[in-house]
């Protein structure tokens, strides 16, 4: 093998001046030539450069040894064209021949092709540049040029493209709605969305790309604020609420999650949870996958004269560092390095002065633009005869773009991992040729182990034993392209917990359309499955409760003019379930005209205006029976195009209605049949009083008999009045009622009852108070409350206090007695027939007092806040002259 210079001499070519032929007078000194050769060798070694020549007379190729070594060529002589073609990749022979022909024709351009490493068989990517040398007669005699090994750059480009394709595939396969927002000044811009967003936008998702956040969410300032906070604080934020769909205009429940993927990127994941409020919020993820490889950076050469501390730099080195005047000394050079890297640069200088190579990657600040660049610097020390470093020569390579690419790749990977962790996901890839699995870093969180399986058998060990056969069958179906999704259970290695997973997979094909890989995602849906199970259990319990209570449920959807019925609804309406729910118009034959009109108006108001309804109506069955039902309707807040969806319950209250009617009939008969004998008894007592033969004891007994009869008559009158109040037939004609006088009558009526318990009845009234009401109702109301208080006294010699005051336009009566109301009846103290622990109690006293207060436009309340004491407060309107 000959050198380049020897090849030129052997060719006998006398080249023209533009071919740079050197005569004896222009030859540099041997030392200078050696220095140039050393510098050239260093540059070639760092950049993978080589020099070649082609002798057109001998038809032989000569390539610099360093490049032949890169190709694994051990030939010791010039290369013949046939030998050279053995080195060139077979697929590039034609391209290489065309380029060679063009070069020989006088054209100069850059050619890229592949060559084969002669030892390892690996493919080497090469970039070559050549030009033709002519003799004095203008004949082409030789072809010379440079060749560069660009394999690493090509591999980096190919790996980056493959990574982009892989991440883009995963990004587009994501089932959740995913959007990437990139900061633009004080706002964000929608940069990318995955195909799942087509369902949200009605197929117009691409039209929204490039829109600003403030414009996109102009109607949702809360979401704008969340995205800004997420980008500013770097925290994961979540928001659940109503969101108006851009495709349909309907408001749906949507779960939003925002995570900061980098200082300038916010990842938004949205999940429509309107149809499955019990399901786990699915999270979507994305990444910025738009990475572009850049050309190999420029190179600058330098030399440091250690003895004089003088630096010499090439013009390109100055351009790399953005300086017009290169630094001359080490002190001038150091400030060009980034302040954080300056100490490492100085340490590298010290190592070189000790005889070691100068090899460092550091940052520098462009003195023109202020931009920060990453520079890889390599230098070779030159020693004198004493072994001391006298000079250092080297080159600087700008690798800023490569560092950026690597940073973006790391950022993308971190973004994908962050999104997978957020959604409890794991990505996978199965190589169909090697039958090997690759799993993402989030595998250990789903599995509970650091060991990642690489074979299908190892992976099946993680699958629940009951699901392994099915999973294997569905996996084979995925490899055939017959399935893209499966669900199965796994066992967490650390906790032993059974998890439910949902897997999505898609095949990747080669250029010939053959499937080569299976890629996809696995998502933990355990919480979703548990909620589905809990919902099913709740529905079973609800069905049982409806059967016990005789309550049916229905959902009225105006969009389809039909309702969904529970099983109990069919029993209440005595309809065959095979016929399905009836339409609203089918109900007309079950109602009277008036009731049906009321029913239609109530349902119409609920659908149109979200008005709830509460109806009690009879159903007239086909066999003549009457069935009473109680209907409750509650509209949903979201209104669709046809109106609000209404949820309703229907309860069969026929039995209760008949019992109430029977009780009212009995009470009415008792009141009528008992009043006549009591009135006769009172008349008889008055006749007996006319006798002069009565003793004082006889008259006392007659008085007691008359009071008892009057009490019975009052109870009957109160019962009849209460019945009219309940039935809505009581005619209220208010007058001014002196409450002090009313208490006097009550005191006289109950003094014997109080005396029996040695109890006192005390009235506190700072001034006369007159209420606007009915005198008989006021006396009966107060009598019932005071009687109830006296009977409830726990001990003898205690007192019942009655305090009468005013509050604004109301008269206030407070009846207080020692003793606490039992907790079991406090919530139903004023309900009909509510009583506890009182012998002979009917539960009508407080109920009638409440009804009589309401009949007079007043109200009552129970106060048990003071331990061991009970207070019942009555508010009645003040008479006109009493109002302040």
Written account of the structure:
It is a single chain. This protein is 37% helix and 29% strand. The protein is of the alpha+beta class and 884 residues long. The protein is elongated and about 175 Å long. It has a five-stranded antiparallel beta sheet, with helices on both faces. It has six domains: 4-149, PAS domain (Beta-Lactamase); 157-272, 2-Layer Sandwich (Beta-Lactamase), CATH 3.30.450.20; 299-398, Beta-Lactamase (2-Layer Sandwich), CATH 3.30.450.20; 425-524, Beta-Lactamase (2-Layer Sandwich); 550-652, PAS domain (Beta-Lactamase, 2-Layer Sandwich), CATH 3.30.450.20; 732-882, Heat Shock Protein 90, CATH 3.30.565.10.
Give the strand order, joined by hyphens, for the main sheet: 2-1-5-4-3
Q: What profile does the largest beta sheet have?
A: 5 strands, antiparallel
**CATH classification class of the largest domain:** Alpha Beta
CATH architecture of the largest domain: 2-Layer Sandwich
Give me the CATH superfamily of the largest domain. Histidine kinase-like ATPase, C-terminal domain
Number of domains: 6
Total strand segments: 32
Q: What is the average per-residue confidence, as pLDDT, rounded to a whole number?
A: 79
Q: Topology, pairings included?
A:
Layout: H1 4-10, H2 30-47, E1 49-55, E2 60-63, H3 65-70, H4 81-87, H5 93-104, E3 110-116, E4 123-134, E5 140-149, H6 151-173, E6 177-184, E7 187-193, H7 198-201, H8 213-216, H9 221-233, E8 237-244, E9 251-262, E10 265-272, E11 299-305, E12 310-313, H10 315-321, H11 330-333, H12 342-353, E13 358-365, E14 372-383, E15 389-398, H13 400-422, E16 425-431, E17 436-439, H14 443-447, H15 456-460, H16 468-480, E18 485-491, E19 498-509, E20 515-524, H17 526-549, E21 551-557, E22 562-565, H18 567-573, H19 593-609, E23 613-620, E24 626-640, E25 643-652, H20 654-688, H21 696-727, E26 735-738, H22 739-756, E27 760-764, E28 770-773, H23 775-791, E29 799-807, E30 810-818, H24 823-826, H25 845-855, E31 859-863, E32 869-877
Parallel strand pairs: 27-29
Antiparallel strand pairs: 1-2, 1-5, 3-4, 4-5, 6-7, 6-10, 8-9, 9-10, 11-12, 11-15, 13-14, 14-15, 16-17, 16-20, 18-19, 19-20, 21-22, 21-25, 23-24, 24-25, 26-28, 29-30, 30-32, 31-32
Helix pairs in contact: 20-21, 21-25, 22-23, 23-25
């Amino acid at each position: 093998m000959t050198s380049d210079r020897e090849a030129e001499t052997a060719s006998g070519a006398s080249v023209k001046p533009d071919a740079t032929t050197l005569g004896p007078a222009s030859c540099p000194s041997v030392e200078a030539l050696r220095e140039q050769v050393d510098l050239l060798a260093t540059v070639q070694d760092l950049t993978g450069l080589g020099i070649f020549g082609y002798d057109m007379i001998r038809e032989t190729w000569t390539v610099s040894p360093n490049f032949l070594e890169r190709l694994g060529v051990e030939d010791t002589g010039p290369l013949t064209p046939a030998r050279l073609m053995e080195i060139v990749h077979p697929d590039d022979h034609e391209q290489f021949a065309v380029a060679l022909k063009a070069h020989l024709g006088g054209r100069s351009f850059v050619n890229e092709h592949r060559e084969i490493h002669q030892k390892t068989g690996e493919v080497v990517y090469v970039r070559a540049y050549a030009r033709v040398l002519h003799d004095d007669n203008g004949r082409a005699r030789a072809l010379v040029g440079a060749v560069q090994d660009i394999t690493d750059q090509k591999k980096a480009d190919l790996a980056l493209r493959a990574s982009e394709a892989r991440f883009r595939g995963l990004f587009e396969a994501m089932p959740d709605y995913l959007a990437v927002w990139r900061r633009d000044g004080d706002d964000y811009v929608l940069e990318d969305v995955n195909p799942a967003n087509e369902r949200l936008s009605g197929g117009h998702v691409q039209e929204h790309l490039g829109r600003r956040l403030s414009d996109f969410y102009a109607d949702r300032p809360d979401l704008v604020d969340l995205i800004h906070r997420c980008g500013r604080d770097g925290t994961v934020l979540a928001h659940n609420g109503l969101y108006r769909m851009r495709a349909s205009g309907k408001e749906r429940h949507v779960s939003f999650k925002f995570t900061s993927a980098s200082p300038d990127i916010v990842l938004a994941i949205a999940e429509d949870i309107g149809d499955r409020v019990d399901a786990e919020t699915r999270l979507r993820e994305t990444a910025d996958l738009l990475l572009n490889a850049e050309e190999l950076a420029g190179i600058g050469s330098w030399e440091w004269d250690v003895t004089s501390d003088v630096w010499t730099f090439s013009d390109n080195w100055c351009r790399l560092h953005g300086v017009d005047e290169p630094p001359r000394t080490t002190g001038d050079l150091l400030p060009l390095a980034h302040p954080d890297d300056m100490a490492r640069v100085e340490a590298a200088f010290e190592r070189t002065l000790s005889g070691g190579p100068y090899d460092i990657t550091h940052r520098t600040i462009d003195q023109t633009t202020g931009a920060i660049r990453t520079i890889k610097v390599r230098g070779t020390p030159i020693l004198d005869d004493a072994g001391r470093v006298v000079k250092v020569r080297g080159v600087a390579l700008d690798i800023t773009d490569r560092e950026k690419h690597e940073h973006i790749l790391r950022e993308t990977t971190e973004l994908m991992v962050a999104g997978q962790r957020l959604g409890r996901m794991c990505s996978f890839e199965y190589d169909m040729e090697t039958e090997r699995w690759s799993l993402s870093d989030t595998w250990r969180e789903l599995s509970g182990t650091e060991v990642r399986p690489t074979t299908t058998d190892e992976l099946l060990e993680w699958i629940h034993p009951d699901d392994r056969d099915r999973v294997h069958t569905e996996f084979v179906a995925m490899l055939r392209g017959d399935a893209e999704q499966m669900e199965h259970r796994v066992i967490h290695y650390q906790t032993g917990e059974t998890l439910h997973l949902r897997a999505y997979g898609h095949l990747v094909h080669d250029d010939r359309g053959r499937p080569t890989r299976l890629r996809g995602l696995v998502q933990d849906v355990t919480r979703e499955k548990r909620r589905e199970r809990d919902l099913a259990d709740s529905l079973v319990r609800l069905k049982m409760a409806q059967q016990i209570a005789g309550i049916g449920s229905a959902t009225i959807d105006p969009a389809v003019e039909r309702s969904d019925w529970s099983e109990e609804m069919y029993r209440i309406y005595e309809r065959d379930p095979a016929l399905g729910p009836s339409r609203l118009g089918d109900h007309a034959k079950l109602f009277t005209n008036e009731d049906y009109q009321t029913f239609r108006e109530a349902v119409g108001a609920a659908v149109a205006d979200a008005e709830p309804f509460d109806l009690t109506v009879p159903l007239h069955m086909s066999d003549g029976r009457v069935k009473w039902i109680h209907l409750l309707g509650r509209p949903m807040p979201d209104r669709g195009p046809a109106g609000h969806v209404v949820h309703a319950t229907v309860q069969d209250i026929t039995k209760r209605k008949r019992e109430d009617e029977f009780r009212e009939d009995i009470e009415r008969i008792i009141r009528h049949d008992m009043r006549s004998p009591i009135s006769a008894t009172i008349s008889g007592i008055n006749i007996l009083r006319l006798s002069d033969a009565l003793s004082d004891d006889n008259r006392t007994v007659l008085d007691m008999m008359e009071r008892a009869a009057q009490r019975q008559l009052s109870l009957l009158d109160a019962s009849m009045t209460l019945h009219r109040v309940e039935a809505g037939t009581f005619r209220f004609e208010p007058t001014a009622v002196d409450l002090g006088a009313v208490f006097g009558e009550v005191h006289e009526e109950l003094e014997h009852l109080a005396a029996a318990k040695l109890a006192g009845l005390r009235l506190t009234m700072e001034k006369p108070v007159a209420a606007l009401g009915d005198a008989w109702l006021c006396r009966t109301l107060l009598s019932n409350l005071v009687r109830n208080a006296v009977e409830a006294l726990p001990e003898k010699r205690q007192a019942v206090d009655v305090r009468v005051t005013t509050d604004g336009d109301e008269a206030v009566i407070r009846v207080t007695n020692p003793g606490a109301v039992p907790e079991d009846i406090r919530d139903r103290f004023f309900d009909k027939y509510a009583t506890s622990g009182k012998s002979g109690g009917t539960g009508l006293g407080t109920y009638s007092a409440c009804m009589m207060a309401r009949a007079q436009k007043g109200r009552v309340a129970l106060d048990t806040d003071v331990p061991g004491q009970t207070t019942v407060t009555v508010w009645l309107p003040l008479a006109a002259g009493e109002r302040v």
